[in-house]
Amino acid sequence: MVSEAVRLTQQLVQIPTENPNGLERECSIFVEIYLRKLSNVQVMTREVDEGRTNVIAKYKGEKSDLPPLVIIAHMDTVPVEGKWTVDPFGAEIIDGEIYGRGSCDMKSGLACALVTMKQISENNIQLNRDLYVIASVDEEGPYMKGANALVDEQIIPDDALIIATEPTNATLSTVHKGTIWYEVMVEGKSSHGGNAHLGADAAHAAAEIIVALKEKVRNLPYNHDIFGKPAVSIGTIKGGNKTNMVAGSCRMEIDFRLVPPMTKEEANQIVSSAVEEGCANVKGTHATVNHYGWERPPIETDLNNPLIPSFEKAYTKVTRKELKKTGFPAYTDASMIGLRTGNRNIVVFGPGHLDQAHAIDEYVEVEQIDLCTKVLLEMVKSFVSEPEGQVHRPRNNLGK
C-alpha cells in the first residue's frame, strides 16, 4: 500500500508537461478537478498563455488581514533527453523510488502541497490566516511566466508567507543562488579558409571571451558558507557555417550563478568587460550582450520569517530530529515572487535530491514524499486559530 501523496505523484508524472516541448494544459485540468472536490476551498484558474493555466486554491482562515500561507509548486518539467532505462512517464516504483520525468522536480512537491490542502479541508482545521495552494506554469522557462503572472495580477498579498515545495532533500532552504542568463552575439567577417587573414574569426573571439570570463569569475573574492564560489558556464554555443570558412558570427548563451552578496550590476559588468577584452584580442570582431530572461540576483530569507520556527517545530515533531538549513542553488517561483515584490518571507522545502532534477532516469524516494507531506501539514497546522491543545474534529459531511 502507498500513501495518497505517492499515488498522486505517480498520476502527475504520467501527465507529460515538458517545457518547452509541451504544455501544462492536461495537468492543470487534473489539479483543478482534484482541488474542486474539496469542501471550503475556493478554486480559480488564470490563463497565462494559450494552454498554460495557473491553478489557485484558497482555504479561508479566521483573519484575512494576516499574511497568508502560500504553498506553490510548478507543473512543468524540463524535456526528456538522453537514453532512459525506464519509461520517463511510467512513474514506476522500483526499490522504494518513483522514476519519471518530474518525479523529483517537482511533481512530488506538488503532490505534497495538494494532499496538505486536502487534509486541512477534510479535517476542517480553522487556521488563523488564509491558506493558498498554487500550481504554476513555466517555472522552467527563462521568464517564469506563471510566477510573474501571480504578481502582475496581484493574486496574493506582497507580505505572504511563501513556501516552494522544490526538491531540498527534506531540508529548509533559506537562501537562493542568483541566476542570470546572457545571450552574446559575436560578429566578425567570413572569408575563405585559405585566406583566413582576410576574415575576422568570430568563433576565436568567442573563445577569448570565454577564457576572460572564466578567469574573472574564478578571481572573485566571494566564498559563501553554503554555496561556495560563484560560477559561470556556457550553455550553448554555435558559430560559422562551413569548415573551410572563417566564422563570420558566433552565438553563445551564458549561465551566471551568483552567491550573496553579489549584485546583478556586478555580474553585468564582469560579462561586459570579458566581452570587450575577448573581442579586442581578435581584430575586426565586436559583440552585443542581451539578457535572456530575468536578471535574478541572490535572495536571502528574512531570518525573522515565522515560517522558519514553524518548520523547525514541525520537522522535530515528525522526525524527532533537528531540521537542517541549506540553500537552493537556483531560482524558484518563491524567489521570483520575492524579487518582484521585495517579500523575503520565502523558504523552500520538499522531497527529492536536487542532483536528480533534470537528470536521466530521474527519481524521488517514496519515504521522502511521505515525510515532507507530514512536515508540511504540521507546519500549516501550527497556524491554527484555536487555543493550543484544542482538538480538531472532522466536520460532519452528511447531507453535503
Q: What would you say this structure looks like, in words?
A:
By secondary structure, the protein is of the alpha/beta class. It folds into two domains: 4-176 and 298-381, Aminopeptidase, CATH 3.40.630.10; 178-291, 2-Layer Sandwich (Alpha-Beta Plaits). The protein has nine helices and 16 strands. It has helices at 4-13, 25-36, 103-122, 145-152, 202-218, 264-280, 307-319, 333-341, 366-381, and strands at 41-49, 52-59, 69-74, 93-94, 97-99, 131-136, 161-164, 172-176, 178-187, 231-239, 249-258, 286-291, 299-300, 325-328, 346-348, 363-365. The strands form four sheets. It has a six-stranded mixed beta sheet, sandwiched between helices. Strands 10-11-9-12 form a four-stranded antiparallel beta sheet, covered by helices on one side. A hairpin with a 2-residue loop joins strand 1 and strand 2. Helix 1 crosses helix 3 (103-122), helix 3 crosses helix 9 (366-381) and helix 7 packs across helix 9. It is elongated. Mean pLDDT is 95; it is low at 388-400.
Give helix % range. 25-40%
The count of DSSP E runs of length 2 or more, i.e. the number of strands, is 16
**CATH superfamily descriptor of the largest domain:** Zn peptidases
Q: If classified by CATH, what would the architecture of the largest domain be? A: 3-Layer(aba) Sandwich
Number of domains: 2
CA-to-CA gap between the ends? Answer: 29 Å
Structural class: alpha/beta
- What is the radius of gyration computed over CA atoms, rounded to a whole number of angstroms? 24 Å
Helix count from the secondary structure assignment: 9
Which overall shape is indicated by the principal axes computed on the Cα atoms? elongated
Mean pLDDT: 95
Give the CATH topology of the largest domain: Aminopeptidase
Residue share in β-strands: 15-25%
CATH class of the largest domain: Alpha Beta
Order of helices and strands: HHEEEEEHEHEEEHEEHEEHEHEEH
- List segments where confidence is low: pLDDT < 50 over at least 5 consecutive residues: 388-400
Please give the order of strands in the largest beta sheet. 1-2-6-3-7-15
